[in-house]
Write a structure and sequence with these properties.
Layout lengths: L1 H19 L3 E2 L2 E6 L4 H9 L5 E8 L2 E2 L2 E2 L17 E9 L2 E9 L4 E2 L4 E6 L3 H12 L6 H12 L6 H11 L3 H17 L13 H11 L4 H14 L3 H12 L4 H11 L2
Parallel strand pairs: 1-8, 2-9, 3-9
Antiparallel strand pairs: 3-6, 4-5, 6-7
């Protein structure tokens, strides 16, 4: 009896360990608790002088049964259930951070035999702060900055929205402002509550086409109307369509509107 109970406990412990571990295969894994800032943890690994990955996981934003995520294809054994967590992988080489990969946890990632330092206990807010410093640094490589912004946008923590608002308003690079506005639109659309079927207009598709037409008007005509529709229309799909086009507009009024929505 005791032997059987011991076997069951071993299985449970192994399962818990696997659940908390990175979904990474073919890696030399070193697992430890994050004892300092993520920046310092990553730099400590980089200072070893060996090409390595540093990774951790945080809750990912969900929209219904889907997630806010990139179009990266699955790599390895894909799972049927939608992901609930985001893995952030940082590659260090030559004592510097050289790559950043945000990956929704619905597949196994092959590390090709490289060392992986897996950090337990990373808080989502600390992750947002680190990624924001990368996306808005003085002269980060564009690809690294873009990856950091995408990773930040997929964090479920409320701390992500103010960071995106700041980038949409203040980022020097127009591409960064545009990307931040796109992600703000996604998060704001998520915040729109579902409407009862009885409130849905019978001509939703026609109305969505009309919203699209508004997006092509001069900004002083179209933007205020899109904001009005996004904030007050009783049809959820129309409101989300208006938010989508606002997210493409690069207009500061759209940033202010999304900031207001996400602050509620």
């Amino acid at each position: 009896m005791r032997a059987a109970l011991g076997a069951v406990l071993l299985v449970v412990v192994a399962a818990l360990h696997a659940a908390a571990q990175a979904p990474v295969i073919n890696a030399q894994v070193e697992r430890r608790q994050a004892a300092q800032s993520i920046e310092r943890e990553v730099q400590a690994v980089a200072d070893r002088g060996t090409a390595s990955w540093v990774g951790y996981r945080v809750p990912i934003v969900r929209v219904g049964t889907t997630t806010l995520r990139t179009s990266d294809t699955c790599c390895g054994r894909c799972r049927l259930e939608p992901p609930t967590e985001l893995v952030v992988l940082a590659r260090v080489e030559g004592k510097s951070l050289v790559d950043l990969r945000p990956i929704a946890v619905d597949c196994d990632i092959d590390a090709a035999g490289m060392p992986l330092v897996w950090l337990d206990g990373v808080s989502p807010d600390a992750s947002v702060a680190w990624l924001a410093s990368l996306a808005g640094g003085p002269s980060p490589p564009r690809r690294l900055a873009d990856s950091a912004l995408v990773a930040l946008a997929q964090h479920a923590t409320p701390a992500a929205a103010p960071a995106l608002v700041r980038f949409a308003r203040e980022a020097i690079a127009s591409g960064t402002r545009s990307q931040a506005l796109f992600w703000l639109a996604q998060r704001a659309a998520q915040a729109v509550p579902a409407t009862d079927a009885v409130n849905q207009e019978p001509d939703t598709e026609v109305q969505k086409q009309a919203v699209s037409a508004l997006s092509r008007l001069p900004k002083d005509e179209g933007i205020p109307r899109l904001i009005e529709l996004a904030g007050t229309h009783r049809n959820t799909e129309v409101r989300r369509q208006a938010m989508f086009w606002l997210g493409q507009s690069r207009d500061p009024r759209a940033v202010d509107f999304f900031a207001q929505i996400l602050s509620k």
